[in-house]
Specification:
- By secondary structure, the protein is an all-alpha fold.
- The chain has one domain.
- The protein has three helices and no strands.
- The radius of gyration is 20 Å and the shape is rod-shaped.
- It starts with a helix and ends in a 12-residue tail after the last helix.
Length: 103
């Protein structure tokens, strides 16, 4: 779920919002909500004896889950940065033509 949210929202937030900090904060809010929902969904299936996302041992910390979601989170910030750079280039493109022939 967080991967889908990252793909759907990160790049467009960076591209369309002029302020990069606003794009980061919006992404943090969207990611936080989807991460909480995803964790709840996976915990419910784990309690029902599904060990695909988490280990069967409740004392073992889910470091693999942490690593995957942290990687997706980082990719989201990189997509925002890329989108902001491309959006800034598009917004700052000059629409005038320089006719001065000084070569």
């Amino acid at each position: 779920m967080v991967a889908i949210v990252t793909v759907l929202f990160a790049f467009p937030l960076g591209f369309f919002l002029r302020n990069r900090t606003s794009a980061y904060l919006a992404y943090v809010a969207i990611f936080g909500y989807s991460f909480t929902f995803q964790t709840l969904y996976l915990l419910r299936s784990w309690v029902g004896d599904n060990n695909e996302a988490f280990s069967a041992d409740p004392d073992k910390p889910p470091l693999d889950y942490l690593a995957v979601t942290a990687g997706i989170y980082l990719v989201g910030f990189l997509l925002i940065t890329l989108g902001h750079r491309l959006g800034a280039k598009r917004r700052n493109r000059s629409l005038t033509v320089d006719l001065d022939a000084t070569a």
